[in-house]
Specification:
The complex is a heterotrimer of chains A (138), B (742) and C (145).
Chain A (H helix, E strand, L loop, with lengths): L4 E3 L2 E5 L4 E12 L2 E12 L5 E15 L8 E11 L4 E12 L2 E11 L4 E5 L8 E5 L4
Chain B lengths: L14 H5 L8 E2 L18 E5 L1 E5 L4 E12 L2 E11 L4 E4 L3 E5 L2 E11 L4 E11 L3 E14 L2 E10 L8 E11 L4 E11 L2 E12 L7 E2 L3 E5 L3 E5 L2 E6 L2 E10 L3 E11 L3 E10 L11 E10 L5 E10 L4 H5 L3 H4 L3 E11 L3 E12 L12 E14 L5 E12 L6 E6 L2 E3 L2 E3 L2 E16 L12 E13 L1 E7 L2 E16 L37 E14 L5 E12 L19 E8 L4 E9 L10 E11 L5 E9 L8 E11 L5 E9 L4 E13 L2 E10 L8 E10 L8 H9 L7
Chain C lengths: L3 E2 L12 E4 L5 H9 L16 E17 L5 E16 L4 E15 L5 H31 L1
Parallel strand pairs in C: 2-3
Antiparallel strand pairs in C: 3-4, 4-5
Helix pairs in contact in C: 1-2
The chains are: A mainly beta (138), B mainly beta (742), C alpha+beta (145).
Chain lengths: 138, 742, 145
């Protein structure tokens, strides 16, 4: 899949833990996906390719541009974790996911881009209720 | 369908959810008095908001699976369930477990719900429903379907307007359609169950579900009476147009057969009319089993600013019809029925009335000569009183009548009665001198008596002086500040004697003696007798008024006439009368909070030889309060002009709502003179909000030789299945003075 | 015994002119209008000018049988006249709140001399209308004192 670029004010590498930490207006891009956050931590695989990216922000923002009939998707949360191998994003703490005109909000939302499944509430081991707001298409 | 672990948690969506924070303050259609029900919320594109414990959204199929205390709201619609799949594309929601759905005026709970909040439609199985707002009704249905925002259909249903917990009656039917737009409910293959008993089966039943007028069955009346036997009436109401309706009342009587009653009414800005008829093709109660009936037509109109018409036609097939079929004293005690048509022209300062009037006598006991004359026609030109700035007033009238009669002399009469007066009215009293001239000319078909003239007439002047002074003082009346008046009144009347013996009595009778008749200008009605007079009436009235609101607490009046000359114009031969008339007195008092008393007496200090001192005594005591409780106690005695017209009656009327919606109603008219009950009525009304039963026993004297008619009438009313307002209310209203059906 | 002559007019002068709403359309209205001529009260038909507006809310007459002879035929009726009215000041404030007048009188009428008795019944109703008009003025006077 596409290469991942990350920009930030400062970065630290920790080779033993194969961990790199970016701070200050961090921008992560991968193809149609873009994440903006205050702090991002990347967990690398032995071959240095990112295995899991975790972003914190107030809130951290994720945008996936629309393509074909798939509507644009946006997500916000105080903490996001992007599991690259499983292509799954989990949003934690004041999590909001926009699906075209529809809006999902809860304390935890799991968004699997491969299976195009969204889970919120108990099935995403959240503790709060899920609210879905749907604007009917005319 | 939804998968995943089904946790059976307490089902919040059972029957109690149907009734949460909704009251049942009325049963069936909303009473008009409560004003309009809350209108449905109309938003252009309302947002759909769904809350749940868990949501899983498959972007490919655009289906969201929700689980756990799901609450979906869109505009005024609300849906609650536990397991639900929402198809984003179609807006379809499919629920597995028990689901609750609500929109303005309707709540449903059921299983296997399939609902679309966008299109406001959907269906439920094994449903319970509850209507509110315009209609309080509830029930169950094997299949419930909302087809449009205000149209819902149900299969294999029960329906009742009784509050939850009371299944006093219910309708069981194959299908039920509730059209809230048209305000009508329609059931098919319906069975009505009252308590445990099936009462009625009908393949088709329409009933109103809001305050608007609808065609439909009115409350049936079932009864039994000694003259008609088993007696059942099932009226059906036709709401023809906003300003027109009709009621058809088929009535079966075991002793008389089938009768059809019909009433047609219309009302517009310019006119109103009513036709009421009863038709009995074959009266089993008579030998010849003939056809009998009655017709009543009344019509009033104001075609133009100056024209008015008034028509009042009544006709019965035979003299005894009213005695046989009238259900109250007011109908059966009548001797003559009127047929009258009036045309009135209102000019500037004058009015011209054209009238045709005749009577049908329905009392066989009335000799032919005593039957009333007809006015065929009457023209009455009435000049409005013209006031000169100085206060001088002039007026009068001119009348032509042709009096028709089958057994007595008939004739034309032209009469005039101009007057002039100079009224002085002040706060402290009034002084009204008046001079009037009475003239009349007749042309008779036959003389009144052999040798009398066939064109008699008279010209008689009359002078009267009416003076009154108003004195006042303030005082304490039972502890409340009051104003007491003393109003002496003198009324002098002079009219010379003119021989009127050869004038027939067309429309003249002697005024019955009473306090107010002491101050009449003529002691006779009509224009065939102008009473000679040289008399002075002394009158004294005292009123005690509550100082706060001016309401009359007590009024006492006394009056007597002093005859300076003996009145010679008489209708009946009597010996020379005394120098003074009987004393007439009246008393009216508001005793305590809700009690009022009234009395009027007539006492003759020196009665004629066979006369008694007490000629009239009426005493009435009434209790009436804000809770519709009425008690009337009346005693009436009248010496009458002859033994036949003498009466001495005790009259008791009661309407008493008891606790729990039970109401007792009664009237007892007992003739102390004949020691016989003239009318006795006892009724009880009880029930609950969704049903009422009225049972009225009635006994009244309605025919000379027959014993009194006694009957018992039962009316059961199921709120929401028969419209309210039915004959028994008007019947009670007249019987017990003061009873008003709201 | 404390009685003095009543003042010259029924209503305080500053309450002239008086408007009877509906004028002669109601029997009570006609009776009120008839009580006015010759007295100091001035009538107007212009609502703007009226200091006091008397409004007849509803009225009705009725009769019921209260005495019958041995054959059950009528001997006497009870005639009844009911009216509800209210009185408003120039700026619409309520001077006399809506209240009702309910008058009855027993009337001997064996329903034989029908024409004469119809006229007598109308006389009695006219008396009841005049009595009701008196009561309206007396209540208005008490409310304005």
């Amino acid at each position: 899949d596409d290469p991942i670029q990350i920009e930030a004010d400062s970065v630290q590498f920790d080779d033993q833990l194969a961990l790199s930490l970016y701070q200050g207006q961090v921008l992560v891009e991968q193809g149609r996906l873009r994440i903006e956050a205050d702090r991002v931590e990347v967990q690398h695989r032995p071959d240095r390719r990112p295995e899991r990216i975790t972003a914190w922000g107030d809130p951290a923002i994720l945008v996936q541009r629309a393509e074909g009939d798939a509507p644009e998707q946006r997500a916000e949360a105080r903490q996001m974790t992007y599991d690259v191998t499983r292509d799954e994003i989990s949003l934690i703490d004041r999590a909001v996911l926009y699906q075209g005109q529809d809006r999902f909000s809860s304390d935890r939302i799991l968004f699997n881009r491969a299976t195009s499944q969204i889970k919120a509430g108990t099935s995403a081991n959240g503790t709060e209720r899920v609210r879905i707001e749907i604007t009917p298409t005319p | 369908a939804a998968t995943g672990d089904e946790t059976s948690i307490a089902l919040p969506h059972d029957a109690t959810r149907l009734y949460r924070n909704l009251d049942w303050s009325f049963c069936g259609p909303r009473p008009a008095g409560l004003g309009p029900a809350p209108a449905p919320l109309v938003l252009d594109e309302p947002l759909l908001v769904v809350d749940a414990d868990d949501a899983q959204y498959d972007q490919d199929t655009e289906r969201v699976t929700l689980r756990g205390r799901i609450e979906a709201e869109r505009g005024d619609q609300r849906l609650e369930s536990d397991i639900l799949v929402y198809d984003r594309r179609t807006g379809e929601m499919t629920a597995a477990g028990r689901t609750f759905v609500e929109q303005t005026g309707l709540r449903l709970v059921g299983d296997r719900a399939r609902w679309n909040l966008d299109r406001q439609e959907g269906r439920l199985a094994d449903a319970q429903y509850r209507f509110s707002g315009d209609l309080n009704a509830r029930g169950t249905a094997v299949e419930a379907e909302v087809v449009a925002p205000r149209l819902s259909r149900y299969r294999d249903i029960t329906y009742t307007t009784c509050p939850p917990g009371y299944s006093d009656w219910s309708l069981i039917a194959r299908t039920l359609t509730i059209d809230q737009e048209a305000g009508v409910g329609t059931a098919r293959h319906a069975r009505l169950r009252v308590g445990p008993w099936p009462v009625l089966y009908t393949p088709y039943l329409r009933f109103p579900i809001d305050g608007r007028r609808h065609s439909g069955f009115l409350v049936p009346t079932i009864g039994n009476s000694t003259t008609t036997g088993f007696d059942v009436t099932t009226p059906y109401y036709f709401n023809i147009a906003p300003a027109m309706d009709a009621t058809l009342s088929p009535r079966y009587m075991s002793r008389r057969g089938l009768m059809l009653g019909g009433e047609w009414r219309f009302l517009t800005r310019r006119q109103s009319g009513e036709i009421y008829g009863e038709w009995l093709p074959r009266d089993q109660g008579t030998r010849d089993k003939g056809s009998r009936g009655l017709i009543q037509i009344s019509h009033q109109s104001a075609p133009g600013r100056r024209w008015r018409t008034d028509l009042d036609l009544n006709q019965v097939s035979d003299a005894r019809y009213l005695e046989d079929f009238g259900n109250r004293l007011d109908v059966t005690s009548v001797r003559n029925i009127e047929r009258r048509g009036d045309l009135l022209y209102i000019g500037d300062g004058w009015r011209l009335l054209t009238r045709l009037q005749a009577f049908q006598t329905v009392d066989d006991g009335l000799p032919a000569a005593d039957r009333p004359y007809g006015r065929l026609p009457q023209w009455l030109l009435d000049l409005d009183t013209w006031r000169h700035p100085s206060g001088f007033e002039v007026g009068g009238d001119l009348e032509y009548v042709y009096f028709a009669h089958d057994d007595r002399e008939q004739g034309h009469r032209v009469a005039l009665a101009p007057f002039m007066r100079y009224p002085l009215r002040r706060g402290y009293g009034h002084l009204i001198p008046q001079a009037r001239l009475f003239g009349a000319g007749y042309s008779l078909s036959a003389p009144r008596e052999p040798g009398a003239s066939t064109s008699p007439g008279y010209l008689v002047p009359r002078f009267s002086l009416d003076g009154q002074l108003n004195f006042e003082r303030t005082l304490q009346w039972f502890g409340a500040p009051a104003l007491q008046t003393l109003e002496p009144r003198l009324f002098y009347l002079y009219s010379p004697y003119h021989d009127q013996d050869d004038i027939p009595l067309f429309d003249t009778t002697e005024l019955s003696f009473g306090f107010s008749n002491l101050f009449r200008e003529n002691r006779f009605t009509g224009r065939d007798r102008i009473g000679d007079a040289n008399q002075l009436t002394l009158g004294l009235t005292s009123r005690t008024l509550d100082d706060r609101d001016g309401d009359e607490r007590l009024r006492v009046s006394l009056g007597q006439i002093l005859y300076f000359d003996q009145p010679q114009v008489r209708l009946t031969e009597t010996t020379r009368g005394p120098r003074t008339s009987a004393i007439a007195g009246e008393l009216a008092a508001r005793l305590w909070a809700n009690w009022t008393a009234r009395a009027s007496v007539q006492w003759d200090p020196n009665p004629a030889a066979d006369g008694a001192q007490w000629e009239k005594r009426v005493v009435q005591l009434q209790y009436q309060d804000a809770h519709d409780r009425v008690l009337n106690l009346g005693y009436r005695f009248d010496l009458g002009t002859s033994p036949d017209t003498r009466y001495e009656d005790a009259d008791l009327g009661i309407r008493w709502p008891v606790a729990g919606g039970v109401e007792v109603v009664g009237r007892w008219l007992y003739s102390l003179l004949h020691e016989e009950t003239m009318e006795a009525l006892a009724g009880i009304e009880f029930g609950r909000c969704c049903w009422r039963v009225r049972l009225v026993g009635h006994r009244f004297k309605n025919a000379p030789e027959r014993p009194a008619t006694s009957s018992i009438m039962l009316q059961f009313e199921l709120a929401g299945l028969g419209q309210l307002g039915h004959p028994i209310d008007q019947f009670l209203e007249r019987e017990i003075y003061g009873y008003r059906s709201d | 015994c404390g009685f003095q002559l009543r003042g010259t007019d029924m209503l305080p002068p500053e309450l002239n002119p008086l408007l009877i709403e509906g004028g002669g359309a109601t029997a009570l209205g006609r009776a009120l209008i008839a009580r006015i001529p010759g007295s100091q009260i001035r009538l107007t038909e212009d609502p703007a000018e009226a200091q006091v507006r008397i409004r007849v809310l509803d009225e009705g007459r009725g009769s019921r049988v209260v005495a019958v002879d041995r054959q059950g035929k009528v001997l006497a009726y009870e005639l009844r006249f009911r009216a509800t009215f209210e009185a408003l000041g120039a700026d619409g404030q309520v001077l006399v709140p809506p209240q009702s007048i309910d008058l009855v009188r027993t009337f001997d009428d064996p329903d034989i001399e029908v024409l004469g008795k119809q006229e007598e019944a109308e006389m009695i109703f006219a008396d009841l209308h005049d009595d009701a008009a008196d009561r309206v003025l007396l209540r208005l006077r008490a409310a304005l004192r």
